[in-house]
Amino acid sequence: MARRWIRRVTMVAIYATAWSVIQALSPVLVAALLVHDLLRRNGLASLRLLGLLWVFLLAELLGVGLAVLIWVRHGLVPGRDHDLFLEDNYRLQRWWARLLLGAGSRLLRLRWRVEGDAQAVPGPVVVLMRHTSILDTILPVVFLGARHGLRVRYVLKSELQLDPCLDIVGNRIPNCFVNRAGETEREVEAVGRMADGMGPRDGALIYPEGTRFEARKLASIQARLASKDPELHAMSLRLHRVLPPRPGGTLALLEHALPQGADVVIFAHKGLERLVRLHDVLSGAAVGSQVCVRLWRIPGAEVPEGRDARVRWLYERWEQVDAFAREDADEGAARPNDAPHEAARA
Question: What predicted TM-score, i.e. pTM, was given to this entire model?
Answer without folding.
Answer: 0.88
